[in-house]
């Protein structure tokens, strides 16, 4: 009965979304306050019904109701409880339901906390959100129904893909979807503004918090996905330029550009047309990622579905929303004013420079991702575009962008003094230069680019600290006054500095692990020893072990340095009972920011075991930096100016009336 209620709730959510997609737009055109006011109520009702449907599917998983086909295909009664919960979205149908739940959640947030929005804009924004919601509800109900019954009901399920039976599944997809779907609000604001034909600084103020929230979640989601793949797949890599990885990275790049562009528009009413275009492009790339993952055009460990019918349906949604938004943009672009002017050397100019390189980098990743697919569709030829292409195209674009990052916050609005900013960055530049010289001197044989890359990371970190120090008056005022200024800085200043500092830490991690990591592959018998980096690992042999729904062979290694034993590492090769699918569970020893990574291979006829060992110096900086970037986004969201937003229209009108009397 719960399953049928869940299905019914989805149908009700679709009906409400259809009303929400039409009536508020009519109300905004007339204008009719009653029709516009029904948009928030409809948005909240849609959220409640989709939440009920999601809860019904979750109950089916937790209770192991194998009469539901989705549960039978992706669960097992012996599966640990946490994986029964996370398994709800560990498949195509359930993950699409989560996608829609987050979509209507954002709509409900706008309905509840958008009290300062003009009535017509709020109505149009919620209507556009309802268009997207209705399209994906149609998709789920027609092609991906998670509540499909089986009769007779199987006694036992087929179990969840073993690779997904990890805590990463509980964290990575929800965060990633909060980012993907969060950008739908920016898209809806852009389309709603184009419908009304009015875009100004207030619009940018309303859009920026949603952009920041989505960007923050997507940053954390990508980082979590990277670390999950790193420790779960047993290949020792943290990024492979997989097309589905790229599908999440492209919205992040475009969203970063949108975040900076909206700041210019908010402060100077400049870049209006470009900001609206970026808002459309960012969510369009999110939709493209959804298509790539679920259409079957890609074969990837990340891909969810291979049904061509679903791919055609999502392609139709893609064409409808992307094509419709760009068509509306083309019709309205001539009516939009260009906004304020500024000198090339200014904070606005620095942010335009930022946008130029970020969008070019996005285009590079897009071409590298789609070109093999288009070539195969047209000619039938299959080619692979991998790390060499992206390293040669994406990497050089990032170097000038990263070098320019510390300049932006120190330049004045409208017209800046580049030489004065260079003087303020003397300390950061000197520290970066000393770092490059130290790396070159102490790391004998290290690539020159490694020293440059680490120096750029230090440059970013020192530049972020310099920004906060100068804002606080360091070196110019007494310490008590400096402390008061420091405490009085806006949260967005701290958020921006944290984001740039985190970026520098990630850059150091990426460069260091790329340049200095070592890999050793050998065959060991019990009692034998191998060397990796500064460590010696003695293999003690394999020991069988049994888990709740798997059996495994554990390999134990004693780690020593300079003859002193100080740690053990345990790796394993598992076989999951239901699917008879093997997985590799890497053993990882974290030593400060570095890691020793051990993966077991196949057993050899002579009683040995293939062992792969990586020494990865400073590798954790990659994810620590991403976490700090996310914390920067969260900090900025607590900025009072973002929480208050633009003044409410009704209040502004009341003030104007009072002044006239």
Structure description:
By secondary structure, the protein is an alpha+beta fold. The chain contains 22 helices and nine strands. The protein has helices at 2-29, 33-62, 69-74, 81-86, 92-113, 119-143, 167-196, 201-232, 243-268, 272-294, 308-332, 347-379, 387-404, 407-410, 418-424, 426-442, 448-472, 479-488, 491-516, 621-637, 640-644, 649-660, and strands at residues 518-524, 529-532, 535-546, 550-561, 564-576, 581-585, 587-591, 594-603, 609-616. It has a five-stranded antiparallel sheet with strand order 2-3-4-5-6, with no helix packed on it. A four-stranded antiparallel sheet has the order 1-9-8-7. Strand 5 (564-576) and strand 6 (581-585) form a beta hairpin. Helix 8 runs antiparallel to helix 9. The longest helix is centred in the middle third of the chain and has 33 residues, at 347-379. The chain is globular, with a radius of gyration of 27 Å. Residues 644-661 have low confidence and may be disordered.
- The overall average pLDDT, rounded, is 90
Biggest sheet layout: 5 strands, antiparallel
Distance between the termini: 63 Å
If strands are numbered along the chain, what order do they take across the biggest sheet?
A: 2-3-4-5-6
């Amino acid at each position: 009965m719960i399953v049928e209620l869940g299905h019914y709730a989805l149908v009700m959510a679709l009906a409400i979304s259809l009303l929400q997609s039409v009536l508020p737009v009519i109300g905004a055109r007339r204008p009719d306050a009653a029709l516009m006011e029904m948009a928030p109520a409809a948005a909240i009702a849609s959220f409640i019904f989709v939440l009920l449907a999601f809860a019904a599917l979750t109950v089916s998983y937790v209770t192991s109701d194998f009469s539901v086909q989705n549960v039978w295909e992706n669960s097992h009664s012996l599966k640990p409880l946490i994986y029964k919960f996370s398994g709800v979205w560990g498949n195509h149908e359930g993950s699409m339901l989560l996608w829609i739940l987050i979509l209507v959640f954002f709509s409900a947030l706008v309905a509840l906390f958008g009290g300062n929005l003009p009535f017509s804009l709020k109505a149009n924004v919620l209507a556009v959100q309802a268009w997207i919601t209705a399209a994906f509800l149609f998709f789920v109900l027609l092609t991906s129904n998670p509540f499909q019954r089986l009769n007779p009901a199987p006694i036992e399920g087929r179990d969840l893909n073993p690779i997904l039976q990890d805590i990463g599944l509980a964290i990575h997809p929800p965060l990633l979807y909060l980012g993907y779907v969060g950008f739908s609000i920016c898209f809806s604001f852009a389309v709603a503004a184009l419908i009304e034909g009015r875009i100004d600084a207030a619009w940018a103020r309303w859009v920026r918090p949603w952009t920041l929230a989505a960007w923050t979640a997507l940053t954390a989601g990508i980082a979590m996905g990277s670390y999950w793949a790193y420790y779960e797949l047993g290949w020792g890599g943290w990024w492979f330029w997989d097309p589905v990885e790229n599908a999440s990275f492209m919205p992040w790049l475009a969203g970063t550009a949108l975040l900076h562009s909206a700041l210019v528009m908010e402060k100077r009413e400049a870049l209006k047309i470009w900001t609206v275009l970026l808002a459309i492009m960012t969510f369009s790339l999110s939709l493209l990622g959804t298509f790539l993952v679920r259409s079957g055009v890609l074969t990837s460990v990340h891909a969810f579905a291979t049904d061509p019918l679903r791919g055609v349906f999502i392609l139709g949604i893609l064409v409808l929303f992307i094509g419709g938004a760009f068509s509306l943009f083309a019709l309205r672009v001539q009516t939009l004013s260009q906004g304020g002017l500024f000198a090339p050397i200014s904070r606005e100019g620095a942010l335009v420079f930022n946008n130029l390189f970020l969008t070019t980098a996005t285009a590079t990743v897009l071409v590298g991702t789609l070109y093999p697919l288009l070539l195969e569709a047209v000619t039938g030829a299959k080619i692979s575009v991998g790390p060499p292409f992206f390293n040669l195209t994406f990497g050089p674009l990032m170097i000038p962008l990263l070098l320019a990052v510390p300049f932006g916050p120190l330049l004045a609005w409208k017209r800046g003094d580049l030489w004065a900013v260079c003087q303020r960055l003397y300390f950061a530049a000197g520290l970066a230069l000393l770092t490059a010289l130290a790396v070159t001197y102490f790391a004998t044989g290290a690539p020159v680019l490694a020293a440059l890359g680490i120096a750029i990371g230090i440059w970013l970190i020192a530049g972020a600290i310099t920004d906060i120090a100068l804002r606080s008056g360091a070196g110019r005022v007494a310490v008590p006054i400096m402390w008061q200024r420091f405490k009085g800085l806006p949260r967005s200043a701290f958020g921006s500095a944290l984001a740039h500092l985190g970026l520098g830490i990630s850059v150091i991690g990426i460069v260091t692990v790329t340049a200095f990591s070592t890999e050793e592959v050998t065959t060991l018998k019990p009692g034998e020893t191998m060397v990796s980096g500064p460590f010696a690992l003695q293999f003690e042999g394999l020991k069988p072990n049994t888990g709740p729904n798997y059996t495994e062979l554990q390999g134990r290694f004693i780690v020593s340095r300079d003859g002193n034993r100080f740690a053990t590492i345990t790796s394993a090769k598992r076989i999951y009972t239901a699917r008879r699918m093997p997985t590799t569970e890497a053993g990882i020893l974290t030593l400060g920011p570095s890691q020793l990574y051990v993966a077991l291979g196949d057993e050899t006829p002579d009683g040995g075991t293939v062992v792969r060992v990586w020494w990865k110096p400073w590798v954790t900086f990659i994810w620590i930096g991403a976490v700090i970037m996310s914390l920067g986004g969260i900090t900025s969201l607590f900025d009072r100016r973002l929480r208050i937003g633009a003044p409410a229209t009704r209040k502004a009108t009341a003030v104007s009336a009072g002044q006239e009397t």
